[in-house]
Structure formats: C-alpha cells, structure tokens
Amino acid sequence: MLSVGKRRRGHRPATDCETTTEFRKNMIRSRENGGKIMRKKQGKKSALILVLLTLATFALIFPLGVVGALAQDIDGDGFIDTVETAGIALPTNMSLAAYQTIRILPKCDANSNNPRGMCVDPATDDLFVIIKRASSGSNISLPPYDAPKLDPLGLIYPGLGVATHELQFVGTSTSQAIGGHYAVMVVENLATSGTLMGFSTFGVPYSGSAATVWTGVIKKWINDNCNKACFTNKSGVTTCYGPNTSGVSSFTCKNSNSGTSVNMKSPEPELINKLGGEFIQNIINHEVSHLIHLASGTGTSDHHYPIAKGVVMEQFIDVKATKDRSLNINVIFYISTQYSTADDLAYQLH
After folding, report:
1. Cβ–Cβ under 8 Å, residues 184 and 205
2. DSSP 120
3. How far apart are CA 214 and CA 262, in angstroms?
4. Which class for 179: exposed (0-12), middle (13-18), buried (19 or more C-beta within 10 A)?
5. Domain boundaries, the chain
6. Distance between CA atoms of 291 and 296, rounded to whole angstroms?
C-alpha cells in the first residue's frame, strides 16, 4: 500500500532590471518636449541606453553564473558539490550508526582508505537514511554488520551504486535536514498482527520522507510459512502439513537466493532468525527505494514489478511449496536482492 507524495520542483525568482535616475530624467524630458529631441542629444541618449543595457546584462548574468557554480550538483544527489567537497557536518540531532564519534563526513579520498559509508563524494551518489529502531526488542541488526548480521541497507549500494549512510537520532529533535538536503527515515514497528509489512511515500527525499516496516509481521509470516505447507489436488481438496505431521519424512524451509536452509523438524533459532532477517532487509531496501522514486516506468504498476519478477521492487516475493510421494516437503522463498537495469537508471535523489 502506497501513499503518493508530491515532488517539489525548484524555481528561480524573477530579476527586475530598473532604469537609472538619469535615464528616467531623459524619458521625462522627452515627454515634456513632445518627443522632439535634437539629433545630437538623441545620439548621446542612445549611447547611454546601450551602456545601461550592457551593464544590466552583465549585472544579471554574472551573479546567476556565480550562483550556478556554487549550486552545482554533478551527481544529482541533492548535496551541492561545494558542500560535499568541504565535508558534510552531521546535525546535532543525528549520529552515524556505525561510527558514532564521527561528526563530519569528509570528501572521499582514494588514499584515506575510508569505507564509503564514512565519506561523501561530489561525483557519486550519497543517500542518508535514518533508521529508527524499536526502543527494545528490535528485529533490525545493529552495526558492526559482520556475518550473520545483515546490513539493513545492504542491497542499495551494490544494486544501484548509491552509497548509503545509516543515521540514528540523538536527543528529541526529529528534523531530517542535513547538508542542505534531507535524509529519509525508516521506522520499525514490532506489531505482529495485520497484513502490511512495509509502507512508504513514493517520491524523492524531502523533510517528511519516511517509511514504516513491520518487522514483527515479517518474522511471523516467515515462521508461519515455515511451519505449514498446503497443497490442493485436482479435485479441489486442500491438505496441509507441518513439520510434525504424521508421515512427513522431512520439512525444509529455505531462501533460494541466499541458500539459507532450516530443518524444521529440529530448527536452529539462529537460522530461523537469519531467514527473517533476510526478508526484513529486502523490505527495508524496497521501502527506502520508494522514497527515491522507484519503481517507475515500463513493466511497473503502482510503483512495483509483478510478483515473482525476481527483483527488490516486485510487489511481493515468490513462495513455493513442493512435496514428493515420501512426503519430503520443501518451502522455498525467493527473497530478491537484485534491482532491475531500469531501476539503476530511474532512481532520483533530488
């Protein structure tokens, strides 16, 4: 379910060009003389007008040229080049999730060996994302993101080439303004009831760009599907099986894309959590992508690709259950980690 937001377009205020006092006097004299002016005076007046128009033209063009240079944004990520070159200072109400002592993200330097999340680059895209985890019992991994913990934003950079900088709020202010632009925000909800797993505003980053991810619903959905597989025969009769159903030889739940597999007859909690984490990561990246204008264009409907398309921006992941005559049951999730080629060209950060 989506709520479509309006995108604001920039505009440049009009510039008025005023006549000089001398020019106005000449105009008054002209009217007083009935428009009859000696040829000699007319020549001087024409020269004066030419000078004034020339000066006005330079006065108009030069400041705009300077402003244009100062406001240049080569990569189009909403952060002007001079800001990224100087480094982006974090507002007092934000800190980097993984590097909490750092207050300024410097310009990326090939010789500094800084991870891309610790620097900004005027030539390549940067996106700041505030993740507002539940105050306790969060299902979203915290840094450092070492296996088996998943980076909640880990699909965007390899998939779109947009460097993400995960932020967290400090204090009570919830302003999303940063570096002359805005961060987007993801809010975690631990509720386990309902049908929504993610909700966001389609558009580009602005002061209220936000998404909600129901991690409790996601984990419950994974758990429910890993404990029950139903099959309908040609006569329309549906039979459901669980890991402990009599006659079931094996019951496996797995993510086809990552290879994470769980034996549901004796499940390991760590593996179940990993399956849930992989789907949570998918949903977070999906919703953040809506906040940067994905998906749109050919093959999409309501900003999604069809179910089972095999990409992050599909309407929902594909799920299949299989069984053989010996009742070996497999529940297979196809939790996408890839973006389409069209998405790589269609995202917008500003």
Report:
1. yes
2. B
3. 23
4. buried
5. 21-70, 75-217, 222-346
6. 12
Q: Residue 89 in contact with residue 104, Cβ under 8 Å? A: yes
Query: Residue 234 contacts by C-beta under 8 Å, 6 or more apart in sequence?
Result: none
pLDDT in tens, 275-299: 999 999 999 999 999 999 999 988 9
Instruction: Please list, residue by residue across 268-303, b when 16 or more beta carbons sit within 10 angstroms of its beta carbon and e when fewer do.
Output: eeebbbbbbbbbbbbbbbbbbbbbbbbbeeeebeeb
Partners of 308 in the β-ladder: none
pLDDT confidence bin for 11, thresholds 50/70/90: very low
Rounded to an integer, what distance in angstroms lies between the CA atom of residue 183 and that of residue 165?
Answer: 9
User: Which pair of tokens denotes residue 306?
Assistant: 């069809």
Contact 92/251 with Cβ under 8 angstroms? no
Q: Containing H/E element for 40?
A: helix 39-70
Region 28-43: what's the mean pLDDT? 37
Query: Other CB atoms closer than 10 Å to residue 310's CB: what's the count?
Result: 15
Condensed to tens digits (0 to 9), the pLDDT of residues 184-232 reads: 999 999 999 999 999 998 999 999 999 999 999 999 999 999 999 999 9
Q: Is 222 helix (H, G, I), strand (E, B) or coil?
A: helix
